Amino acid sequence: MEVEWEENCGEYQVERFVPLYIKTHVLGLQNFFQCKLATWISNCSCVEEIWNNFKEIVFESIERFVTQKILNKISGPE
After folding, report:
1. d(C-alpha 35, C-alpha 60), whole Å
2. Cβ-count burial of 18 within 10 angstroms (0-12 exposed, 13-18 middle, 19+ buried)?
């Protein structure tokens, strides 16, 4: 039986942040959305602009109020 092995058998993962939504600071998140909502509604003119502003607010709120865990690299076979 003959087997061909590839040089890179293992896949390497890089460090990445994983949000832990269960540990979200809910009151801070609610206050943040209430403050941003008034300026967000008054400054939008088209659907694309509304969507982009909404995404920015969501990503900013995740960074501020959702606890994140760092997943470390998995070392593969050498």
Report:
1. 13
2. exposed
- Would you tell me the crossing angle of helices 47-65 and 26-42 to the nearest 10 degrees? 160
* In the chain, alpha helices (H): 26-42, 47-65
The CA distance from 44 to 64, in Å, is 23
* Mean pLDDT over each residue of the chain, to the nearest integer: 77
Domain ranges in the chain?
Answer: 16-69
Q: Which two tokens stand for residue 72?
A: 């470390």
Give percent of the chain with pLDDT exceeding 70.
73
Q: Quick one: tokens of 44?
A: 């939008």
Whether residue 7 contacts residue 78, with contact meaning beta carbons closer than 8 Å, is answered with no
Specify whether the CB–CB gap between 69 and 18 falls below 8 A. yes
